[in-house]
Amino acid sequence: MEDIDLMHSLGVNSYRFSISWARILPKGRFGEINEAGIKFYNNLIDGLLLKGIEPFVTLTHMDFPQELEDRYGSWLSPESQEDFAYYADICFKSFGDRVKYWVTFNEPSFQVKFGYQAGTFPPSRCSKPFGNCTYGDSEKEPFITAHNIILAHIAAVHIYRTKYQATQGGSIGIVLHCFWYEPISNSVADKLAAERAQSFSINWFLDPIIFGRYPQEMQDILGSILPEFSTTEKQKLNKGLDFIGINHYTSYYVQDCMFSACEPGPGTSKMEGYCAQSSQKNGTPIGEPTELAGKNVYPQGMEKIVTYLKDRYHNVPMIITENGYGDMNKPNSTTESLLHDVERIKYLAGYLDALSTAIRKGADVRGYFVWSLLDNFEWNSGYTIRFGLHHVDYETLRRTPKSSGTWYRNFISQHIAKDSMDIFMNKLYIGFFFLLQIFFLPHSISSDQLILRQSLKRKNLSAFPSNFLFGTASSAYQYEGGYLADGKGLNNWDVYSHKPGNNIVDGSNGDIAVDYYHRYLEDIDLMHSLGVNSYRFSISWARILPKGRFGEINEAGIKFYNNLIDGLLLKGIEPFITLTHIDFPQELEDRYGSWLSPESQEDFEYYADICFKSFGDRVNYWVTFNQPDSQVKFGYLTGIFPPSHCSKPFGNCTYGDSEKEPFIAAHNIILAHIAAVHVYRTKYQETQGGSIGIVLNGAWYEPISNSLVDKLAAERARSFTINW
After folding, report:
1. How far is 610 from 649, CA to CA, in rounded Å?
2. Does the CA dihedral 565-571-574-579 come out positive or negative?
3. Fewer CB under 10 Å: which end of the chain, C or N?
């Protein structure tokens, strides 16, 4: 319960944990169910749900009842499939009414490699030269055990899908340890070696589960060593998961050893695909070394492995089920130094940035788990390595937040809006291994300004829905230039900026601006280089209708915006168009005082109709007005924007009434907006399929004190701006 409170204090919304198989079935299917074990996990699940934390359950994380090893050799026997199916059924039945995410196995490639090839994990089976064990055959047993694990996974999936999924509504998958392998050179041989390395690790399990067969590279190299699936098994294997779990920490260089001679080492044997693995290339590490050998920091690997799995497995939903940074618990380590874990913060920020890039490029990633909430027992490393966001004193078991835990908590609270959580909940999860959804701009703790500056340079854009728009924004007068070019008429800012005594501080104007009118293709390339998927710009009303509805349509203006829209779409950039960004044809001001007259409604409706008709077949997002509250305030209250209407004490203008005109102008703008919306909805929306809105200046107002009068004042401030 104490640890659930720690999770809740961090703001996580999910927790990935594994069930101890031997706590549920001490003797496997050969003994009774341990009801105390069932009760423990029921209490854990209920405790999580009471705190709003989603349980994400792994059925076995490399552990199994010793009884199965003693009776029949555990995963070396097909009986293991029956035992696992029986155990999984009990778990689905006991907990599935509250568990929506199930994982069958964690890192089975490691389980068979270390348990049956190198012999460094139980049951410690191996043969020389892979290891020095009493029993085992490193050239055969890894493939027998993997085969039984794959079929045990499928047995559990079959039970869940046929007996429980329809009523419980959950999903089931498997978790693989996913290194990224970089070819050490651009040679074809090394590139093929990198692919073989994936085939002998990730694809070894995923290909049978998804495609019903082992990777071709394994079949070609191993031949009869590789077990075969029966016809019935192949039928069950097809699409045997709902999601792929990815444990990713680091990357390696890979060199071909099939067509070239290699020194003996990791990956070089036939059983491993003839691909030497190294953290260095010509003495240069693949990424910043850490205190843990072979755990270099290479964030690019996160994007690359996710993209690889997306492409190979047709973008099956993915969840990053482990990612984290370990440091050594050295004899001279002080608690203070372990708590101030700046390198862990840098690591998490870098890998999340890379993950966000993969998502932005289309990878269907639905969650991220950091390893780990707490320092813990790390297999053969015992308690010498610490991965936790919380430090654990192993004598007292006291938990203390590290700097990374504080960073994480601040990150979540700052960058995952609570009122958006329900929208994202089915797509994105936040938690530990522990599932933490963090694809936003990393937030640093206040004491680590260096990390904050580094984080601010990153492009973490993607912890939003898959159709979220990321872009840049501009307006016609501020960008285009092209003053009176190709038939454009004068607008209100053209006249105002040339008028002596205006309020432009440096005496400049937008006649040229940034010459976007002539250089827009160059600027589209800039957007594309940033990776944005949308661009918000405004149309110059006077470029389309130099005289409003009292003159002809300027076809050169139509052509310019058609070219701009087409250019954006060619680069995969969504046009997001504002009809007027505080500018309008000067003709309307000269004829009837623009927004002070109801005639302005008719002019805007006419202009909007032309735009919908001319561009709407390619535009899905329309904005009628940009910041009308600012337009009427500065144009008709203080007089510092055109048409420069005001009265004292608000400003010193030749014309205007600051107490009346802002409300008349706002009224006409609101009705003009409605007129345009009506045109769009009745004439175009059904066939064009777009949407239409308005943009407000969304300043936030804080009451200066907790007094009722100041709180009411803050609400009035909103009423006289946004709510207006």
Report:
1. 41
2. negative
3. N
The reported pTM is: 0.62
Q: Is 126 inside a domain boundary? A: yes
- Cβ atoms of 179 and 308 within 8 Å: the answer is no
pLDDT of residue 410: 77
Annotated catalytic residue 233: no
Q: How do residues 241-270 score in pLDDT, each as one tens digit?
A: 999 999 999 999 999 999 999 999 999 999
Considering 107, 195, 480, 589, which one is annotated as catalytic? 107
Asked if 457 and 479 sit in the same domain, the reply is: no
How far is residue 164 from each of residues 15, 84, 86, 88, 92, measured CA to CA in Å? 22, 16, 14, 11, 7
Give domain status of residue 353, yes or no.
Answer: yes
Domain end among 177, 200, 217: 177
Please indicate, yes or no, whether residues 483 and 631 belong to a single structural domain of this protein: yes
Q: What is the mean pLDDT of residues 505-515?
A: 93
Domain with 609, as residue range(s), is 471-699
Q: Which one-letter amino acid corresponds to residue 698? A: G
Tens-digit pLDDT profile for residues 665-677: 999 999 999 999 9
Comparing 228-242, 284-298, 567-581, the range with the smallest average pLDDT is 228-242
Active site residue 322: yes
Alpha-carbon span 289 to 8, nearest angstrom: 33
CB 390 within 8 A of CB 404: no
Task: For residue 226, tell me if it sits in a domain.
Answer: no
Angstrom CA distances, 235 to 155, 209, 229, 678, stand at 12, 10, 10, 55
